[in-house]
Every structure is written in C-alpha cells, then in structure tokens.
Amino acid sequence: MAEKSFIERVRRKFGIYPKFWLKSFLYRWTPGGWGFYRELAKLKDESYDHERDKHPVRHKHTGESGWKEEDESSGEFVYRDYGSYEEYLDHQKVKFDEMLKAGAGFGPKEVGDMRIRFYRRFRWLPYHLEKDASCVCAGARQGTEVEVLQDLGFKNAYGTDLNPGPENPWVREGDFMKMDEADESVDFVFCNAIDHVHDIDTFFSEQTRILKKDGFGMYEVMAGTKGGAFEAIEWESDGALIRKLLQYFRGVVKIDTEAHWMWFLLTDPIKSDSPEEASES
Q1: Which of 9, 149, 170, 271 has the CA that lies 20 to 30 A from 75?
Q2: Is residue 41 part of a domain?
C-alpha cells in the first residue's frame, strides 16, 4: 500500500472527518430524525398490531421456537429448523418490515449510537485500504454502515440485503448466501449479521470467493447472546466462531471488544470450495 500523504496521516490519526461528524450531529439531535431516517419514520403504521398482523413465518420462528435440536445441527453451531430456503428468506426479510411498521430502532439516539459504533470499527481501515477500495457491506439492511464508510471517504462502498426497504440510497437487494459479485473483485467486506446466515460455511465461502487475495474481511457479533427473534444460527462459544473464521482467513489484523460487541478484522482469505480444504491450507 502506498505511503499516505501528510494530510491523510493527520486525518487518520486524529479522526478529522468533518462530513461524518456533522452528519452524526444532525442524525443525533434533529427532532424526529434527519435525512433518510426521517423518511423511514414516516412509514410507521399506527394501526399495526404485531400479534394480529405478523407474517405467517413468525408463528413458527420466534426467539425460542423454531430451532433444530442440537444433535440435528452441525457440531458447535445450531441452526433454525427451516422447512425450505424460501422459509429462511421469508423469515429474514420480515424483520425490516416489522421494524418499519412499528417505528422501532431508528430514532435519533439509535442512529447516532450506530454511527459512532461503526466509526470506531472503520477508523482502522485507512491504515489498510485506499479510498477507492471496493467495499461491500453484506446484510446491511438500512445501510448505516455503508453511509459511515462513504463519510470516511470510501466512495465505492455499497450494501446488499434481502430486504433493503423502499428507496434505499445505500443498499441494493442481494443475498449474502449467493453473492452477485465476481470472484476476487472486492477489497473489503463487512458483516454484522453472521447470526442470520443459513449455513456458515457457505457464507464464508462466498465472502472469501469475492475478496481479492490481499482483501480484508471485518465481522461484528454480539458476544454471548442467544435466542433472538430473527437469528438463524447460534454458536457454542466465541471460540467456536473464532475457529471458524480462521478456516477462511490466514491473517488476523485486529480482534477487539466493546460492551457486548466483539469484532474481527481479518486478511489473506483462503480460497477453497470446502471448509475441509480451507482448514488444511
């Protein structure tokens, strides 16, 4: 990677990103929300009653129900008992719809907190990536992480999600289990939705497939939490997840924790068609 200019080195060291900080202030302190989130707030349905109006898939899949027995799942990972891949897709798509109808999760404080959290992750990227790097946020939903990447200067960042909602400026429709990106076409992938994958090996195979040989993957998880309403997979321990990550990446750049979050920055993706081949590399 080329040596950074003096201005860029100062910006990186002291977090001088005026666009990010100004927009964060507006998102956090504008009554009723600001920008895209103000538009999302308008989609709240005052007549919505979850128990009455919920999607049929939600009768089976709640926080505690709809899971496979542990001996039916795979080793250190336990999966939802989906009857088909379409059932999995329906379950994952409906989360955003429920949030929009209920008007939950996108208030000024929530958005402000999310932006600061993503900034604390992404502030490390200028040490490793050029600003024209291709960056994909998989499972990005409304796209807060994409906007933060763009505010930090990564102009080629975009997100994909099964359900990006209406007129989303940052996220396009896409399935992170079957990604549209070409082989070795992406410099950086980010995902904080590993707990929503249908199959963890297929997911990481897709991530490493699209990454360039010197590309980076960043993953964020909530440590020690189980039984959420939309999670599709649980793991036995943080160690189980770390072992899985190391089947698909040779290089560990950074592992950190913050409150109940844990995140990983990895590099040198292992290219293989199976986890068995990856673990033997």
Answers
A1: 271
A2: yes
Asked if residue 158 is part of any domain, the answer here is yes
Task: Please tell me the predicted confidence (pLDDT) of residue 41.
Answer: 94
Instruction: Mark whether 96 and 230 lie in a shared domain.
Output: no
- Say if residue 2's pLDDT is above 80: no
Mean local confidence (pLDDT), 235-253:
95
Query: How many independent structural domains does the chain possess?
Result: 2
> pLDDT tens for residues 168-227?
999 999 999 999 999 999 999 999 999 999 999 999 999 999 999 999 999 999 876 566
Same domain, 44 and 149: no
Residue 169 lies inside a defined structural domain of this protein: yes
pTM: 0.92
